[in-house]
């Protein structure tokens, strides 16, 4: 404790201490053993003053100790609470991160399933479209062939009818037996 921190009580103590030291050094400034009562009074007074100083120091020391203990206790309590909240935050973040990864994995699985289903739908649609196109081409070819066959059958039928009609309407002489051509040197 400095001299600047002293309040009125401790300042009086220091003043009294200085006076007692001055008085006690020469038994009251040359009163050598004439007045033992005054020495005893000064000794008692000095003893009481020292005792009050010790009590004051003990009280201040106890207050400082209590302040330090309560201060460190509060710091310890606050640190425990803060570390508990930090720990809870870390656990919460870890849980949310894991949950986020699980959600992400589920979303990826859902996208994979949807992509597979879309791919299957596209392949099926392509297959169906190809089948429809091939069926249409086959039907067109069949119709073309039918039409062509019908046209050829009509031509054949027309030719047969024409041959029949020509044979009935304008008869040509038909030889009764075959003879070789006399004008041909090969004999046919």
Write the layout of secondary structure elements.
Elements: H1 8-25, H2 27-30, H3 36-169
Helix pairs in contact: 1-3
List keywords for this structure.
188 residues; mainly alpha; 3 helices; disordered N terminus
* Total number of helices: 3
Oligomer, anyone?
A: single chain
Strands, count:
0
The span between the termini is: 162 Å
Instruction: Give a quick account of the main beta sheet: strands, pairing sense, barrel closure.
Output: none
C-alpha Rg (nearest Å): 68 Å
Mean pLDDT level = 76
Order of helices and strands: HHH
Strand content is under 5%
Poorly predicted tracts of residues:
1-8
Q: Would you write up a description of this structure?
A:
The termini are far apart. By secondary structure, the chain is mostly helical. Helix 1 packs antiparallel against helix 3. It contains 3 helices and no strands. It has a domain at 8-121. The longest helix has 134 residues, at 36-169. It has helices spanning 8-25, 27-30, 36-169.
In short:
The chain is built from 3 helices and no strands. The chain has helices at residues 8-25, 27-30, 36-169.
